[in-house]
Design goal:
The structure holds 2 protein chains of 2 kinds.
Chain A lengths: L3 E9 L6 H9 L20 E2 L5 H8 L8 H17 L3 H5 L3 E6 L8 H10 L13 H10 L6 E4 L5 H15 L4 E8 L3 H9 L20 E2 L1 E9 L11 E10 L12 H14 L8 E3 L6 H15 L5 E2 L2 H4 L6 H15 L1 E2 L21 E2 L4 E8 L3 E8 L2
Parallel strand pairs in A: 2-6, 3-4, 3-5, 9-10, 9-13
Antiparallel strand pairs in A: 1-7, 1-8, 5-7, 8-14, 11-12, 13-14
Chain B lengths: L1 E9 L33 H6 L2 H16 L6 E5 L5 H14 L7 H6 L3 H9 L5 E5 L5 H15 L4 E8 L3 H9 L12 E8 L7 E10 L3 H15 L8 E4 L8 H10 L6 E3 L1 H4 L6 H14 L7 E8 L3 E9 L3
Parallel strand pairs in B: 2-3, 2-4, 7-8, 7-9
Antiparallel strand pairs in B: 1-5, 1-6, 4-5, 6-10, 9-10
Helix pairs in contact in B: 2-5, 8-9
Classes of the chains: A alpha/beta, B alpha/beta.
Chain lengths: ~400, ~325
């Protein structure tokens, strides 16, 4: 099978606006979640993890003045440009009909929740946002502004959206439908999702504590990240390569609309499937970037699944303790973090953990450590039981 | 090649059980609204909670699932909008009642992947589960995904579904942007297909699907020319052309350019007269092809081409062929 490698990456999150800034924040255990009230949440007061740049600064920095462009798209563009530049893609390569763009998002243009309500309820025809509210508006903008002529797709499988985008881009390259694919995800904080998660009673009133026995739920965050994937024959010998996309597997938990099964059947199948796809034994995985949302349900289900697959799981962390849960962007953000771990042979501290879950007692790594890493797994599980595991391997 | 073995469609016409193309239900105003079946086989408690997109999507998919000779290996859904009516209902809740009164029902039903996840729960199916939402190409992307999967494992069956609802909120947004000039009809529907990589008991073969983003008619016709020379076997012709012509004068030149390129003896069908305009309307065109080919029994080569544009910026070509039985 054709091998697919990562040759570029870009990320923006609550802990930094670039790969370098995110790397430094991860090493230093920086938490980007704050408890100060954010106007985006309306009357709901919960901790949130916002990107430090406001829309005005993003627009100025990116030179985007079209008012129809939403915050989700601005974040996406920021990370997209960094990834493309990092991979050294030429304008010609970007325009090529063999370059695909696959993006995951759940919020999309719904970051403008108040504007949508106004536009529909008052039939406000002067609104710049009439065609901005859907998920695809984010990646349609990237396509149009970079004159991309290849396959463009938007995936929404809730919190695993970007993991499926990475998987789908890999499959397009393997099938020959694309030579390279720019894959990732973006989501911004929105009154719509904050209210939705509030109604589901899974927002933590305090800063989230993944895998801790006293965890009380998740914190929402925002961000975007992209990877540049290229087929092996497209990569000149001297070109920088971060890692290989070794395994991808998508499996449904088939249990409940918004909870995972107690025994973690879907997560178990996803992890085992990714191992099979990569041709690896469980013992060969050196490190896991867990989904680790810090909800009662996820962390218990994921822990059980890790025990089922690995017996004694390898070192693992949840970087949602740094960035909050960035939903459709999460898997792409965490792919970048997994690739940083591989590139620098180091594991970053998982934050806010003190005691393990009774009966399972799995402890994430809580202090920075350097160690040899060859195969890294990244988990992402979405509402509706959409479970995806990815494996990245040092090339 | 991807093969289609079974198909079920819920549309503004009587398509759920049988279909007579000579008896067309006309639009009411500028809307074609689906004729919903009684949804036998979907538990009533689930049905009550479903938004319309979820109801139609599962309603078309469940009967197809029952016709599968063995369990499917996964669900692939294309939906441009997902549950727009529930999105707006939830926004109303936020604005009218405030955070203390929020209930998660509409929020859960509004997420695009609820159709594929609902199907996996009803079928207790732990296979592949995917939702493509790329607006006017959401169904084409789901179709392409199914083609990749079937090439990876020819024996496996997958359920492929295209669905979009017409709600007050998405109609209002498109209408305000001018997408429903006189003569253009808004529509909705769901079509589900049992697909695989093997031809036994198949009705339709999908030779190829191609998509592009452009508003330049030259670019679109260039791509179509290339598509046909790559995928239409030498010496064969398009026997039926199905297009998404929807009465919008601004889009007419794309369809004309396509018609000019195709064998002028091929009958031309405008499928949106049956289903109206919506992001995944090509799933209706695919169902229509399946229906026509399932009614015919002859050995002549049948090549159907579906060309559609969504709002003049997204374009797709789907090349289909009848499987001789």
């Amino acid at each position: 099978m054709k091998r697919v490698f990562i040759t570029g990456m870009g990320v923006i999150s609550a802990i930094g606006n670039t790969v370098t800034e995110n790397h430094s924040a991860l090493k230093n255990g920086v938490c980007g979640i704050t408890t100060t009230a954010d106007p985006v949440a309306g009357s709901i007061h919960v901790p949130l993890a916002a990107v430090s740049l406001d829309n005005e600064l993003l627009r100025k920095k990116l030179q985007v003045h079209d008012p129809a462009v939403t915050r989700t798209t601005l974040l996406a563009l920021h990370a997209f440009r960094e990834a493309v530049q990092d991979a050294g893609l030429t304008a010609e390569e970007l325009n090529s009909d063999r370059t695909a763009l696959i993006g995951g998002t759940t919020v999309g243009g719904m970051s403008q929740a108040d504007e949508l309500y106004r536009d529909v309820s008052q039939r406000y025809t002067d609104s710049p946002f009439l065609s901005s509210y859907d998920c695809s508006s984010v990646f349609m903008f990237l396509q149009e502004s970079h004159r991309m002529e290849g396959i463009v797709d938007t995936i929404n499988t809730a919190c695993s959206s970007a993991a499926n985008a990475i998987g789908y881009g890999t499959r397009l390259i393997r099938s020959g439908l694309a030579k390279r694919a720019i894959v990732g995800g973006a989501d911004s904080l929105s009154k719509f999702t904050i209210s939705g998660f509030k109604a589901l009673h899974i927002l933590s009133p305090e800063i989230c504590r993944p895998f801790d026995r006293h965890r009380q739920g998740l914190n929402l965050g925002e961000g975007a990240a992209f990877l540049v994937l290229e087929g092996e024959e497209e990569i000149p010998t001297h070109k920088k390569v971060y890692a290989e996309v070794k395994g991808y597997f998508n499996s449904s938990d088939a249990f409940h609309p918004t909870s995972l099964s107690a025994d973690g059947e879907g997560p178990h199948l996803a992890m085992q499937g990714a191992l099979n796809a990569a041709g690896l034994n469980a013992s060969e995985v050196d490190f896991i970037n867990a989904h680790g949302t810090a909800t009662e349900n996820n962390d218990e289900s994921e822990s059980k699944a890790m025990i089922r697959v690995f017996g004694e799981p390898p070192p693992f962390i949840s970087t949602k303790s740094n960035t909050g849960h960035t939903l459709g962007a999460a898997a792409a953000v965490e792919a970048v973090y997994s690739l940083l771990s591989l590139a620098h042979q180091e594991i970053y501290p998982s934050l806010h953990f003190s005691q393990g879950i009774p009966g399972l007692d799995l402890h994430p790594v809580t202090s920075y450590r350097r160690c040899p890493l060859r195969h890294v797994m990244s988990n992402s599980f979405g509402f509706g039981g959409n479970c995806v595991s990815l494996i990245f391997s040092k090339s | 090649m991807l093969y289609i073995h079974q198909a079920v469609c819920i549309s503004p016409q009587d398509t759920f059980h049988s279909f007579d193309a000579t008896r067309v239900h006309p639009p009411v105003g500028n809307k074609l609204v689906v004729r919903e079946p009684s949804y036998e086989g979907i538990p009533r408690n689930l049905l009550r909670r479903m938004g319309k997109a979820v109801r139609m999507g599962t309603g078309a998919s469940v009967p197809v699932l029952r016709l599968a000779p063995r369990p499917v290996s996964g669900f692939i859904v294309g939906t441009g909008n997902g549950g727009t009516e529930d999105s707006y209902k939830f926004l109303e809740q936020i604005n009218e009642y405030g955070e203390e009164m929020l209930t998660p029902g509409s929020f859960s039903q509004s997420t695009s992947n609820v159709i594929a996840s609902q199907l996996s729960q009803m079928d207790r199916n732990r296979g592949y589960n995917m939702t493509h939402v790329h607006r006017g190409l959401a169904f084409e992307m789901a179709l392409q995904d199914a083609m990749l999967l079937s090439a990876e494992d020819e024996a496996a069956y997958y359920l492929l579904t295209g669905v979009d609802e017409l709600s007050a909120s998405n109609f209002a947004l498109d209408d305000m942007e001018g997408w429903y000039p006189p003569g253009t009809i808004a529509g909705e529907g769901a079509a589900a297909f049992l697909v695989s990589g093997h031809p036994q008991d198949a009705i339709v073969g999908v030779r190829a699907v191609a998509t592009l983003h452009s508003s330049d008619v030259e670019v679109v016709s260039g791509r179509l020319k290339n598509f046909l020379s790559t995928h239409l076997p030498l010496g064969e012709d398009i026997t039926v052309l199905i297009t998404g012509e929807n009465g919008d004068a601004r889009l007419r030149h794309y369809y004309e350019a396509c018609e000019e390129m195709i064998n002028s003896k091929a009958p031309l069908l405008h499928f949106k007269r049956y289903c109206g305009e919506y992001p995944t309307a090509t799933s209706f065109a695919l169902w229509l092809t399946y229906h026509r080919l399932s009614q015919e029994k002859n050995d002549l080569i049948q090549n159907y081409l579906i060309y559609n544009t969504y709002k003049g910026r997204q374009h797709s070509f789907i090349l289909l062929t009848g499987i001789s039985r």
